[in-house]
Design goal:
This protein is α/β, with parallel strands linked by helices and 214 residues long. Helices cover 41% and strands 21% of the residues. 39% of the residues are buried. Pfam families: Pribosyltran.
Length: 214
């Protein structure tokens, strides 16, 4: 679910402007999973544009506090959300931790890096939601450390039904700055894509794992 419509449209426009999101239905990308996709999203680019990263920081800080209440800790999912997560934590004056995909192989073998006490309220910051599996693995790691997860806030979600199911099953509320639906509407409005291309992009979102396989 998006925080609000105005933020969703503005975020989508900014991501398109800096090519953090690329739309190419005629020459689709191949994801690491092997899926063919007419969209590629790299929100790490946000950090390279000061005015845009500040906008993302401020929208996260404002909407996280409004939606979840002020948590005790902000957690970022490694590696894509570490930078943005730190910015949000700094804005809210909160401690920050980050979550590795798996425990470190040596030393203290931490998966959660930073100081976290049992029972603390945590909001998790993520850059991108596809199926939600890696994001929810971070939630599980935090819960294993005794954290109380208030919810997750992400820059962008593709809005896959499987992600909605995964978050519901994990009992985690997800809110995003923008999503696929608002992106496509904005992209047509600003003439990044045609209405025919929009139809192709909408078809992909219905069955992304099989799209483009003939």
């Amino acid at each position: 679910m998006i925080f609000n419509k105005d933020t969703a449209e503005k975020t989508a426009e900014l991501l398109l402007q800096i090519n953090a999101i690329k739309l190419n239905p005629e020459n689709p990308f191949t994801w690491a999973s092997g899926w063919k996709s007419p969209i590629y999203c790299d929100n790490r680019l946000i950090l390279s544009f000061p005015s845009i990263r500040n906008y993302v920081r401020d929208e996260f800080a404002k909407n996280i506090e409004k939606q979840f209440g002020k948590p005790d800790v902000i957690a970022g999912v490694a590696t894509g959300a570490i930078g943005v997560g730190i910015l949000v934590a700094e804005s809210l004056g909160l401690p920050f931790v980050y979550v590795r995909p798996e425990p470190k192989k040596h030393g203290r073998q931490n998966q959660v890096e930073g100081f976290l006490q049992k029972g603390q309220n945590v909001v998790v910051v993520e850059d991108l939601i596809s199926t939600g599996k890696s994001s929810l693995m971070a939630v599980e790691a935090l819960r294993n450390e005794g954290a109380n997860i208030k919810g997750m806030a992400a820059v962008f979600t593709y809005g896959f039904s499987v992600a909605e199911e995964n978050f519901k099953e994990a009992n985690v509320d997800l809110f995003t700055l923008s999503n696929y639906e608002n992106l496509l509407d904005l992209a047509v409005q600003k003439q990044y894509i045609t209405e025919d291309q929009q139809s192709t992009l909408q078809e992909w979102s219905v069955s992304p794992s099989t799209w483009g396989q003939e």
